[in-house]
């Protein structure tokens, strides 16, 4: 309607309008053509639109638009139609437009975003300037300022029925400070949008920083003023049913959030620090799809062993590793592989991390005395075939789980140890009898998560010599080249996107059962397992580096440097194990050792003081 309104106002004629429509560029705004041609000024166009449309005028030079709001619509759409989002309040999206008469564009935006579009009139030049400012900062880089903090997605806090009345009263009282509510909603919605696993709210001297753990790494994303820190902490405490008056002791709580169709459970922990309370929220997306074993990065040999384990009628399968290493995800993948309509599946967790329609899932509630051991004993009376126990924390739970395996049930559970064979030592330390472990244990997964190389910027490069040295690898181990990520917009210039598992799978057999049940030594079991083909975490990680899935940096980060007692061979100079008497490369005998009794000799000794043999003989 802009051209017709200009003709109606006698600022241009119909011939000038037809000429403008023919001569202007296809993507050029009509008003910009008249301004460029010197026919009209911007103020004249604004005056005509304001007079005939009755739309409120906004001076964008006096408005600070949050970057995430300005970028909630595609840039090409904004530039082509000369518009920029200004505010997002509830279901209302306020948009500054150079031509508010463009009803079709408003309707299309409303249909796609499911928001009510409120148009405002603004100068075309100011809109272009705001679009440039909003998109000049690369997405995902740097931190957001407090002024930019506005939730893009609507989220609902789900209250527990038993405490709903008291919580609502507290929420009504806290709603007198709407900015704090918006800040907390924005922190949670941004974490869900980034796919973060943890939120860290840390008080510093001059500000509070919000950090998200994305793909296992912490990234600083938001800064808010220090004077708002107590209000933000109190808001989160109210939502998670903590005591807001207690600031000197650590507390734990839980928040359930609904974002669209997704239900996210958040475990909240507070810790008093010298600058104020720190909050960490662990995010558990209940609507996440259970992954197939192929998607977890299990290699072919381990996959064959897993197929054997999942067909066992009874026994204990343990996933071990540090917090956040994907143990529960692995157990649910095993559960999905075992899924059979003729069996009864039960899960016991705190809290339930995945929804599985075919299983009966129970959530632990320590406050009312509902512990792992108590629920596990009750579950055994429910005629189960397969039981998933979230964690073996104490002797009572572990003892019940192993005895359940001995009575004909398959038990999947987790444990916190550093390697697969060390889990056996940990179980003995917890008080489980070695002969029970030998009879019931079927397999142990030790695992870590490494970041995957971004497929959009993967490139071949020479391996870093320093990393090879830390991992005690020869310089030609990878044939002179490995794959690294150079960084691109798809991965926020990190070179990584997504994660994949690194595994160490220990499968029980009769030889191991005899060793564990009689005279258990961890080193002997480990050596026998490696002789039977078990890959250690490092070996599995290096294979995934060779295949171009991850990098040496990531393997070193999650597995750590290799510590070996090595010495240089006096003849060929290559590094060999310090226990070796003969060099496996050149065959020469160790110089500072007696050839007869193998005892060490010092420099200058001509004869062995232990057996009398001459050094040269």
Describe the structure.
With 617 residues, the protein is of the alpha/beta class. The protein has 4 domains: 2-137, GMP Synthetase, Chain A, domain 3; 155-285, Beta-Lactamase (2-Layer Sandwich); 293-451 and 499-549, P-loop containing nucleotide triphosphate hydrolases (Rossmann fold), CATH 3.40.50.300; 565-617, no CATH class. The protein is built from 22 helices and 21 strands. The strands form 5 sheets. A 7-stranded antiparallel β-sheet has the order 4-8-9-10-5-6-7, covered by helices on one side. Strands 13-12-14-15-11-16-19 form a 7-stranded mixed β-sheet, sandwiched between helices. Strand 20 (566-568) and strand 21 (575-577) form a beta hairpin. Helix 14 (372-379) packs parallel to helix 15 (395-406). It is elongated. The N and C termini lie far apart (107 Å). The model is unreliable at 138-142 and 161-177 (pLDDT under 50).
Number of structurally distinct domains: 4
Low-confidence stretches: 138-142, 161-177
Structural class based on helices, strands and sheet pairing: alpha/beta
Distance between the terminal alpha carbons, to the nearest Å?
107 Å
How would the global form be characterised? elongated
Q: Give helix % range.
A: 25-40%
Query: CATH H level of the largest domain: which superfamily?
Result: P-loop containing nucleotide triphosphate hydrolases
Structure summary, number of beta strands? 21
Strand composition percent: 15-25%
CATH topology of the largest domain: Rossmann fold
